[in-house]
Amino acid sequence: GESVGLHLPTLSVQEGDNSIINCAYSNSASDYFIWYKQESGKGPQFIIDIRSNMDKRQGQRVTVLLNKTVKHLSLQIAATQPGDSAVYFCAENYGGSQGNLIFGKGTKLSVKP
Amino acid sequence: DTGVSQDPRHKITKRGQNVTFRCDPISEHNRLYWYRQTLGQGPEFLTYFQNEAQLEKSRLLSDRFSAERPKGSFSTLEIQRTEQGDSAMYLCASRTGTGELFFGEGSRLTVL
Lengths: 113, 112
Fold this sequence. Notes:
The complex is a heterodimer of chains A (about 110) and B (about 110).
Chain A: E1 10-14, E2 19-24, E3 30-38, E4 45-51, E5 56-58, E6 62-67, E7 72-77, E8 86-94, E9 102-103, E10 107-112
Chain B: E1 5-7, E2 10-13, E3 19-24, E4 31-37, E5 44-50, E6 53-57, E7 65-68, E8 75-79, E9 88-95, E10 102-103, E11 107-111
């Protein structure tokens, strides 16, 4: 896999490699974070979420890491597949708002066969 | 179909016309959200309903925009006197409590 700098708009990986997508969030009061996947012409699709009292959460082939000290969120995708090609957005929900998710600009992941 | 449904999927209109979008959330979800997304950007929050009450509105929601959820089920988003800058994807999402937010496929608006 390859590690990318913060907020890189595109990421290209080889099929089977691990992908790491990074995100810097803005509000230290944010208490809930979500990663979404969006394919062309479709709505965002929930991947995984994490609350601020955790620093790591694992799903199927995906792991989200949260570093509150530097306000950084990452999404790791294991054994990346062509079907993972999409734009990935992180979103934050700061305390006191009932769902006003603030989305980042997104990272386009391209998986080469 | 148990997902969030939006209609129409694509609307082309002339500047100055009014348009209305409809969203049918997942049936047991009491919270409904509208977002706007322009090309290459993440979705931007517009407004949020809990049941029929509109509880939060973004500054993006100018006075030409109005959203309703009259019976706490489906919602409509109307844009009056459309401008070219209104061209975007309008996304609806729903959830119950603080659970996962489910998005619809969106309604794409093109203002000529």
